[in-house]
Write a structure and sequence with these properties.
This protein is an alpha/beta fold. It has helices at residues 2-17, 34-37, 46-55, 92-106, 118-124, 129-146, 167-187, 216-231, 239-246, and strands spanning 26-32, 60-63, 66-67, 83-86, 111-115, 151-156, 194-198, 251-255, 269-274, 279-283.
Length: 286
């Protein structure tokens, strides 16, 4: 009986989150700076996002003129899709300047994830925000001219390390976030939604590998927030997750990423260890 209730609850949850079927073959462009790009010393969210989308059984293609040189493990018999458009050091102006050439090379894109502004607001402070917002408006207009039906997810970017966040940088970030809300409202059209994804919510220093870049925990959190936003629009059909429930595994214990037993189960990465030896990684937002 408990198993049946769990299965019904899970299926109800996915019906709530997803409204329409995911468009098969959708091209997804991850656009931005070094936080999108990643490196061998800090993480990009793209690998974790790619796994989340596979778990939903979606047919998609990550696109871009850049190719990730880092080797990632395969997942569910799939090889990581390494194409992206994240370039370290790029400001909003740099992204705008390069975007026409990028779109010319990759063709029509269906979903764009925009993570930019860090090299403006977190480097130059409040003085940079008006120009950054103007550039972002122009970037969105270019993307919509490429595909009037495009779905755009744009970040309210995560802050840097607390110790680097001066009064001016905090003000710059707050102003940037407020303007991103206005951008999304003003740039949404009857055929193209522009949706804000808040990456700054309850952000912690523990999510950073250095002053501004993600570690593995931060990358997972950003990926989860993106994938959760997509699940509010598209139906998620997690075939593998349903199969796991049918096996009736028993949870042995729950650990945090440092291997400690925990009771608090929200706003952190959790490792669920089952009696069959399998380990499941989850992140639950409160």
């Amino acid at each position: 009986m408990k198993f049946q209730l769990l299965l019904i609850a899970l299926l109800t949850s996915y019906n709530f989150w997803g409204q329409t079927p995911f468009p098969a073959g959708s091209k997804i462009l991850c656009l931005g700076d070094s936080r999108v790009e990643g490196s061998d010393t800090y993480d990009s969210y793209r690998y974790e996002l790619w796994k989340d989308l596979i778990d939903c059984n979606w047919d998609f293609d990550l696109v871009g003129t850049e190719i990730d040189p880092i080797s990632y493990p395969s997942y569910q018999n799939n090889i990581f899709d390494a194409n992206h458009q994240g370039i370290g050091g790029y400001t909003t102006y740099d992204v705008l300047l390069e975007l026409p050439s990028v779109l010319s090379n990759i063709g029509i894109v269906d979903i764009v994830l925009i993570g930019i502004g860090g090299n403006d607001a977190l480097n130059e402070g409040s003085i940079s925000v008006p120009d950054a917002i103007e550039n972002i408006n122009a970037i969105i207009e270019l993307i919509q001219s490429n595909n009037p039906q495009v779905l755009i997810l744009i970040e309210q970017i995560a802050p840097g390390l607390n110790s680097m966040m001066t009064t001016d940088l905090i003000q710059a970030l707050n102003t940037f976030h407020n303007n991103i809300e206005l951008v999304a409202t003003n740039q949404t059209t009857p055929t193209s939604n522009v949706i804000v994804v808040d990456m700054s919510y309850e952000w912690q220093d523990a999510y950073l590998a250095d002053n501004v870049h993600y570690n593995s925990i931060g990358a997972e959190i950003v990926a989860t927030r993106y994938s959760d936003a997509l699940k509010t629009i598209y139906e998620c059909n997690p075939v593998n997750s349903l199969q796991e429930i049918q096996i009736k595994k028993s949870l042995v214990k729950t650990l945090d990423v440092l291997g400690r037993n925990i009771n608090h189960t929200t706003n952190q990465i959790l490792l669920h260890i089952y009696d069959d030896g399998s380990i499941e990684k989850k992140f639950i937002v409160e």
